[in-house]
Amino acid sequence: MIAQHVDRGPLGRDEMARVLARDIPHGAYVNLGIGQPTTVGDHLPPESGVILHTENGMLGMGPAATGDAIDPDLINAGKLPVTELPGASYFHHADSFAMMRGGHLDLCVLGAYQVSAAGDLANWHTGEPGAIPAVGGAMDLAVGAKQVYVLMSLFTRAGEPKLVKECTYPLTALRCVDRVYTDVATFEITGDAVLVRETWGISFHELRSRLDVPLTAATP
């Protein structure tokens, strides 16, 4: 049986980040995408051994910097101030992308506009007139990291699902997403099925009724 927390949730942004951080393997090399994924770094305990990579050229990134800890020269790819952990290193932008493209990252965490049941990712452009496309390093991460986790709300403000049969927005990469962490459920995408691992504030049966995607309850 999946864990259904019907009386808890939906999750807030920090709670979503905490749930995802809990599932990152010990000692993994991880890139956190721009936006909400960067909050995951604030929920990694020191004993996790996770080493954070940022595409503007740093290994060993720590949590977000605040107050007197802010150094204007020490930022992540989203230009937000961060801290450095003991042993942190810096390198050229090109070397950073070589790490991403060369399969040297165990995991990346990205935001998304849509994820398909097959694991296709659309996270750089809505296709709306006037919208500013900004793929950045997302396409490199999506195909270069050994695993891709997506962190996003499950529904738009209009109530439309973001986990869909097929993406209608321009694609970033095909069949690259392994897991999707949302405010009401966590999904695992295997290629053959979409497994529901955990829910918050919604039952498995209600989730099934709101998504046009075949869902299977994950087994322990």
What does this molecule look like?
- This protein has 220 residues and is α/β, with parallel strands linked by helices.
- It is built from four helices and 14 strands.
- The strands form two sheets. Strands 1, 2, 3, 4, 5, 6, 9, 11, 12, 13 and 14 form an eleven-stranded mixed beta sheet that branches. Strands 8-7-10 form a three-stranded mixed beta sheet, with no helix packed on it.
- Helix 2 runs parallel beside helix 3 (138-144).
- The longest helix is centred in the first third of the chain and has 10 residues, at 13-22.
- It starts with a strand and ends with a strand.
- This is 3-oxoacid CoA-transferase subunit B.
- Belongs to the 3-oxoacid CoA-transferase subunit B family.
- Keywords: Transferase.
- InterPro entries: 3-oxoacid_CoA-transf_B, CoA_trans_fam_I, NagB/RpiA_transferase-like.
Q: Unreliable segments (pLDDT under 50, ≥5 consecutive)?
A: none
Query: Kindly state the mean pLDDT as a whole number?
Result: 93
Put simply, the count of helices is 4
Q: Provide the helix percentage.
A: 10-25%
Q: Roughly how many Å is the radius of gyration?
A: 17 Å
Termini gap: 7 Å
Number of strands: 14
Note the overall shape.
globular
Global structural class: alpha/beta
Please state roughly what percent of the residues sit in beta strands, choosing from under 5%, 5-15%, 15-25%, 25-35%, 35-45% or over 45%: 25-35%
SSE sequence, one letter per element: EHEEEEHEEEHEEEEEHE
Instruction: Please describe the biggest sheet, giving its number of strands, its sense, and whether it closes into a barrel.
Output: 11 strands, mixed
